[in-house]
Automatic annotation (TrEMBL):
Lineage, top ranks: Bacteria, Pseudomonadati, Bacteroidota, Sphingobacteriia, Sphingobacteriales
Coiled-coil ranges from the UniProt annotation: none
Keyword Oxidoreductase: yes
Organism in which the protein naturally occurs: Arcticibacter pallidicorallinus
Keyword field: Oxidoreductase
Name of this chain's protein: NADP-dependent 3-hydroxy acid dehydrogenase YdfG
Length: 253
């Protein structure tokens, strides 16, 4: 039986790269996101190129009832999820705490923390019933340290780091593997979203060095997931060579 991976936020960036890579290894996929057209286009490509089965779920992970309804509405065969990649996440704004947009705060907290929890609450129980599965949580260097004006985004990714450790403990008796990957700078739509479509400002984030790509992260996740059953890689911090942490860089002038 082909294995199944469920990937949130699969419409672009790391999520899309994971979908493409796992499909190349003959995983059937459940891919979720808010943009139906992108999900449909990706699903068609994956089916055509890899001969796998793909189920799409258009949903916003911030909406608890929507998440529960969409996931629980899957046919039973699709609930035998082997790998859950909690990829959906974002940053909004880059302001000091005193000037922060509270709507942006709500969006980040609801997506990065609560959305991850809503999906995990459902899928982890499917895994418990089967005594098998692997959950991979997408963190960030922002979950390991705090940088200027990162405040609430950093707080949400620190929460992901804590939740990853807690999940590892809670799901230990059920034989479920739990891992986190914490990337530094990855050139995706991340900065476009953070700066709300200011493409010129977003591009400047990646100037003067070679950032990571979604493919780099997907390949690292694949390595984590493809280890023997007795191996769990709890935590990975992955950076571009030009980035030491969230403050120190070696950029070309």
């Amino acid at each position: 039986m082909p294995k199944i991976a469920l990937i949130t936020g699969a419409t672009s960036g790391i999520g899309e790269a994971c979908a493409r890579l796992f499909a190349s290894y003959q995983y059937n996929l459940v891919i979720t996101g808010r943009r139906t057209d992108r999900l449909q286009r990706l699903a068609s490509e994956l089916v055509r190129e890899n001969g796998v089965k793909v189920q799409i779920l258009t949903m916003d992970v911030r909406e608890k009832a929507e998440v529960q309804s969409q996931l629980n509405g899957l046919d039973e065969q699709w609930k035998a999820v082997d790998v859950l990649i909690n990829n959906a996440g974002l940053s909004q704004g880059l302001d000091p705490i005193q000037d922060g947009n509270t709507d942006d705060w709500d969006t980040m907290i609801d997506t990065n923390i609560k959305g991850l929890l809503y999906v995990t609450r459902v899928v982890s129980n499917w895994m418990i019933a089967r005594k098998d599965g692997h959950i991979v949580n997408l963190g960030s260097i922002a979950g390991k340290e705090v940088y200027q004006n990162g405040n609430v985004y950093c707080a949400t990714k620190h929460a992901v780091d804590a939740l990853n450790k807690a999940m590892r403990i809670d799901l230990l008796p059920h034989g479920i593997r739990v891992s986190a990957i914490h990337p530094g700078a990855v050139e995706t739509e991340f900065s476009d979203v953070r700066f709300k479509g200011d493409t010129d400002r977003a591009k400047k984030v990646y100037e003067g060095y070679t950032p990571l790509t979604g493919q780099d992260i997907a390949e690292t996740i694949w390595f984590m997931v493809s280890r023997p059953k007795h191996v769990n890689i709890n935590d990975v911090l992955i950076m571009p060579v030009a980035q030491a942490n969230s403050v120190y860089w070696n950029k070309e002038k």
